[in-house]
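User: Can you predict the 3D structure for this chain?
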Amino acid sequence: MSQPKSPPTSAGTAARRAARESLSGAAARKVERPAPLRQAVYDALLELIVNRTLQPGQHLVEIDLAEHLGVSRQPVREALQRLQTEGWVDLRPAQGAFVHTPTDEEADQLLGVRGVLETYSAKLAAERATQADVDDLLRLHANGVNALKDEDAEQLVTANAAFHAHITKIAGNAVLAEMIATVDRRVRWYYAPLALTRGKDAWDEHAALIEAVKANDAETAGRLMGEHTERTRQAYQQATEN
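Assistant: Here is the predicted structure, written as structure tokens:
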């Protein structure tokens, strides 16, 4: 004989209300039907986590997520299971799904690996860069500076990712690009709380890096990128300590 469900606690009700409000406050993003639904729901939920619309530790209620995305609960349930496998979501028995809260060790390890990969990428980019490549970097840099002036954290994260992605593209190493892509979303996730506080320093560092790439100075470009990524790693550590 099944046991009657206990009524939700006031704390649970408040948490669910906060979760619904965070979704309703985000730009509506209904899932595109032409794409495979399972993949589309996964991509949508992952982006909500990466851009921190869904905060670390936040309770994920299937029915609310399904309503926000305009789908049934089944693809949401499947997406949450996949996200749990990949470390983005924690599924807790009798409690449900929660956005994963990264440990200090997880973040430090990933940002350390990112530094090694990006340093090599910057060296290769400096060796290969054309004037057209430099012009593209200058355009992307201007986007970041404008986002900083507007104090738009979300656009800063996007601009930062686009700048680093273009360095990787110029580097022209497919294996390196694949490895960087595997950490890119987590870098964006960790960088989001730092975007404004790191803002001016980060984009000044980007400007110096562009000059090294323009001069085809691989050693300087690698050194500058190494210092840049290390400062971001240290800034994350300091932010989590406070």
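Strands lie at 59-60, 89-92, 96-99. Residues 104-128 form the longest helix (25 residues).
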